[in-house]
Design goal:
Elements lengths: L5 E7 L3 H18 L4 E7 L5 H11 L4 E9 L5 H20 L3 E8 L2 H8 L6 H22 L4 H9 L1
Parallel strand pairs: 1-2, 1-3, 3-4
Helix pairs in contact: 1-4, 1-5, 2-3
The structure holds ligand LW54GNZ2 and ligand LTPLIIQW.
The ligand CC(=O)[C@@H](O)COP(=O)(O)O binds next to helix 3.
């Protein structure tokens, strides 16, 4: 029997009401879409701390997907934009470097109304979206492993050299 699929959620605590709802919706939807999945949850203080936690998880184990969750609400200064831009860039870099899907739902919103709609409301819920994207990428990677085993390219090159 195959190993149980593992998904890791790295979620910021900042803007707690919204961040917690994002986590809850993500976990609930994973339960619906991938019921036998083991879900590990790591909480960090703010969105800025997400990439270092993701990098550490990737260094120590290789889950089928990592889901990054955070809620950045724009303030009076450029702080929110700087944090959001940096987090987004590092998450994509880590995903590509380690070849593990990193789902990015570190949200940059204008105000609490936008945060409510995306974290608590049903229609735009980014927690459910995160779970759907993770489930989809787990399927994509299983299919890639099945149809393109890792050393296929090198083996072909060697044969034709
Ligand atoms: N303003 C928000 C933050 N700011 C905190 C930073 O993420 C970080 O924890 C701090 O700069 C120390 O390194 N974090 C959020 O997740 N959301 C915000 O709206
Ligand atoms: C303290 C923060 O991280 C964030 O709320 C920045 O807010 P501001 O831009 O108003 O200083």
């Amino acid at each position: 029997m195959g190993q149980r699929v593992r998904v890791c959620i790295v979620a910021a605590k900042y803007n707690e009401q919204f961040a917690d709802a994002l986590v809850e919706n993500t976990v609930d939807e994973i339960g619906v879409l991938m019921p036998s999945t083991r879900v590990d949850l790591i909480r960090v203080p703010g969105a800025f701390e997400i990439p270092v936690a993701v990098a550490t998880v990737l260094e120590r184990e290789k889950p089928a997907a990592i889901i990054a969750l955070g809620v950045i609400i724009k303030g009076a200064t450029a702080h929110a934009d700087l944090v959001a831009g940096s987090v987004t860039q590092f998450l994509q870099g880590l995903a590509v470097e380690h070849r593990v899907p990193v789902i990015n739902e570190v949200l940059l919103v204008d105000d609490e109304k936008q945060a409510y709609a995306r974290c608590i409301g049903a229609n735009l819920n980014r927690g459910k979206e995160a779970a759907r994207a993770a489930a989809s990428m787990v399927d994509v990677f299983h299919e890639l492993d099945r149809t393109m085993p890792k050393d296929t390219g090198r083996a072909k090159k060697t044969r034709h050299a």
